[in-house]
Amino acid sequence: MDKKYSIKDIAQLSGVSVATVSRVINDNGRFSEETRKKVLKVIKETGYQTNFSAKNLRMNKSFSVGILVPDISNYFFATVVQKIEKILFKCGYSTIICNTARDEDKELAYLKMLESKGIDGLIVISGAKAFDINKVSSSSKIPFICIDRKPKDKKNTIFIASDHYQGALDATDSLFNSGSKHPIIATHKHYSSSGADRLRGFKDSLEKHGLPFDTSRNQITLTTENTTIKMEKVLKSQPEIDGIFAINDTVAIEVLSALLKLGKSVPNDIKLIGFDDEPQDKHTYPTLSSVKQDTDRIAQVAVENLIGLINSTGITSESIIIPVELMPRDSTL
Amino acid sequence: MDKKYSIKDIAQLSGVSVATVSRVINDNGRFSEETRKKVLKVIKETGYQTNFSAKNLRMNKSFSVGILVPDISNYFFATVVQKIEKILFKCGYSTIICNTARDEDKELAYLKMLESKGIDGLIVISGAKAFDINKVSSSSKIPFICIDRKPKDKKNTIFIASDHYQGALDATDSLFNSGSKHPIIATHKHYSSSGADRLRGFKDSLEKHGLPFDTSRNQITLTTENTTIKMEKVLKSQPEIDGIFAINDTVAIEVLSALLKLGKSVPNDIKLIGFDDEPQDKHTYPTLSSVKQDTDRIAQVAVENLIGLINSTGITSESIIIPVELMPRDSTL
DNA sequence: TTGTATGCGTTATCAG
DNA sequence: CTGATAACGCATACAA
C-alpha cells in the first residue's frame, strides 16, 4: 500500500518477466492476449506508474519541453503559453516554464538547466535580441522553434509570428479611415522583432496616405511613468495630432488614460487603436479598437512543428505568418 | 565537439575515477585540491553537464516541482506563478506548469503525470473544491502546499492565503466611509475558498454598519455576458444601491463598464471597489479602488515552506495568512 | 585521498 | 511468444 511499484514487481506479481511487462506497457513486440490481460490487471491493482527518470535515461528522451517567455504576466504571452501547454500535455509532453524577464544571463542559465534535464524540444517566445542557441553549447542540437523572435541562424529553424506588419498597416489605415489626418505611433522602450514589424506597417500606411515618416514627428516613446507628461508636451508642440497607433494595448490604455486626463476626447479629438485585443479593451471608456492575434493557431502551429522537429531528423527551415484580425471599437469610430 | 560528455568521459580525460569526478562535482567526500582543479578544468573544457535523468533515478529526486493553477492568464495567478518560478529556479528547482482550467479530470491527469516524473514537491493554487492529494495515489507522499485553496486533510499540510476576509471587510468599510449607505457585493459563478472568505468579510462589514445581509438583496451573481442587463434590472428594482464591492477586478471592470453604459456616474451615484489591484485599475476612468495582495510574500512563503517540507521528514501543519493592502482610488472618492 | 563495484527502473537485443 | 541480460549515467558503500 505504501510502496512504489516497479516493473520488476509487476513482473513478479503477474508471473512473467520484466521484458514482457515492458512490452505490454508499451504495446511493443508480441505477446499473447492472455498475458496482456494478466499484466494489465496487476498494473491496475497496484497502481503502477512508469518511472520517467529511468525511462528517460534509457531512451535519452524526457517527454518534456522547455518554454522561454519574457513575462508571463503579459496577456498575450500568458495566453499563448497556456494554449501551448494544453496541446503539449495532450501529446504526452510536460512543459517547463522559464520566465526570462528579458534578462540574457537568466536566459542562458535556463537554457543550461533545460539542456541538463534533457528536454526534447524548446519553444522560445519573443525577447529583445535574435535567438542564438549556440551560445549554450555547440554540441547540443535541441530542436526548437521561435515565436515572435527571429532566430539568429535563419537556416535550420522554424519561425512563427503573427502578421504584425499587416496588423499595424490595417490599424493605421483604420485611423485614416475614421478621419485622422496626422496619426503618430506610440512605442515603449522594449524592442522586439514584432515591434519592428509593427513600426514598418505604420510607416507604410503613412506613406500610402502621402505622409513621409519622420521619427521625431511621428513617433513617441513612452515609459510607464512619464506617459501623461510626455503626451502633454507632444500634443502642445504638435496640435495637429489626431490619431495614435499604440504598439500594444498596455501602451494604448496608458495613452487613453493620459488623454482623458489632458481633457482630450477619444475618438472625437483623437482616434486611438492598440494591438493584442486584451479582454479589458471591451471595458475601457470608450472601448478600445485593437488588432487580434490568433493565439489558438499560433499555439497549434508551434506545437505541431516542434513535435515534427522532434520526431524527424530532417531539418526544416520555415517562416510561418499567422493572419491577424482588426477589431474596431469605439476609439476609432 | 559534437558528443555529449558523461562523467565517465570526464574521468578518463582527467585521469581519475568516476567516483572522484562525482565527488568533485558534488563537493562531497574528500579529494585533493590538485585533483579538484584537474577535474574542474576538464569539465570547463568539455562543457560537461549533469544528466539529470540519471541523477534523478539514482537519488530518487527530480529537482523539479509541479504547479497546479486554474488559469494562468489571470493576472493574480500569473504573477504568483512567475514569482514562485523565479525563486524556485534560484534554489535549483525547475517548475512544471499545469493549467487545470478548473477541470477535475485534467487535474487528476496532471497529478498522475507529475507523480510519474517524480516531482519533489507540488504547489496547488486555488480551484473550486478542497484539494485531496489522496485521489491520485494513496501511496505517494509528495510534499505539497496550497495557495488560496483549502486542503481536504487539514492535518499534515500547509495552507497559504491572503487575508481575503480582512481585505473584503476593509473594502466594504471604505464604501461606507465614502458615503455609501446600501452597498452590494458582485460575485461570479466560480466559487473558491478565497471567494467565500471575501463574502464573509463583506457580510461582517454590512452587519457592523447595522445592515443584515440578505443574499437576494445584497448580492448579485454575474457572468461575463449578462453584466449590463443584470445590472440594469437590479438597479431598477433596488434604486437605493449606491456602492458595489466586486469580488475581483475583472468583475469590477465589467461592472464599471456596465454602469457607465447605464448612465450612472462613478463614484458620484455609485461607489465601486474591486480586489487584486490589477495594473489596469490605474487606467480606468475613474481609476479603480482595489485591495492589493502581497504576491511577493505569498511566493516567498510558499517556496520556503515547500522546500522545508521537501528537505525534512517532520510533517507540519500550518495556516499562513498574508496581510493585504487597501488601494483607494477615484472610484471610492 | 582515491578506485571498484553495485544498483536505481527502463528498454532493447538476443536467444530460446 | 517469452525470458535473461546489457546498458543508460550517476552516487555511494566498501576497499584499498
Shape of chain A: elongated
What's the structural domain tally of chain A?
A: 3
**What is the chains' assembly state?**
homodimer
Q: What is the tally of beta strands of chain A?
A: 12
Task: Please summarize the sheet with the most strands of chain A.
Answer: 6 strands, parallel
SSE class of chain A: alpha/beta
Predict the CATH topology of the largest domain in chain A.
Answer: Rossmann fold
Number of helices of chain A: 12
Kindly report the average pLDDT value of chain A: 91
Helix content of chain A: 40-55%
Q: Reading side by side through the largest sheet of chain A, how are the strands ordered?
A: 2-1-3-4-5-11
CATH homologous superfamily caption of the largest domain in chain A: Response regulator
Between the first and last Cα atoms of chain A, what is the distance in angstroms? 67 Å
Query: How would you spell out the order of helices and strands of chain A?
Result: HHHHEHEHEEEHEHHEHEHEEHEE
Query: Which pair of chains forms the biggest interface, and how many residues does each contribute?
Result: A-B, 58 and 58 residues
State the CATH class of the largest domain in chain A: Alpha Beta
CATH architect. name of the largest domain in chain A: 3-Layer(aba) Sandwich
What Rg of chain A do the Cα atoms give? Answer: 26 Å
Low-confidence stretches of chain A: none
Strand content of chain A: 15-25%
Polypeptide structure, described:
Chains A, B: Keywords: DNA-binding, Repressor, Transcription, Transcription regulation. Chains A, B: This is HTH lacI-type domain-containing protein. Chains A, B: It comes from Companilactobacillus kimchiensis. The structure is a homodimer of 333-residue chains. Chain A is α/β, with parallel strands linked by helices and 333 residues long. Chain A has 3 domains: 44 residues, 434 Repressor (Amino-terminal Domain) (Orthogonal Bundle); 135 residues, 3-Layer(aba) Sandwich (Rossmann fold), CATH 3.40.50; 130 residues, Rossmann fold. Chain A contains 12 helices and 12 strands. In chain A, helix 5 links the parallel strand 1 and strand 2. In chain A, helix 5 packs across helix 12, helix 7 packs parallel to helix 8 and helix 10 packs across helix 11. Chain A starts with 6 loop residues before the first helix and ends in a 6-residue tail after the last strand. The model of chain A has no long low-confidence stretch (mean pLDDT 91). At the A-B interface, helix 4, helix 5, strand 2, helix 6 and helix 11 of A face helix 4, helix 5, strand 2, helix 6 and helix 11 of B. Chain A binds a DNA duplex (16 and 16 nucleotides) through helix 2 and helix 4.
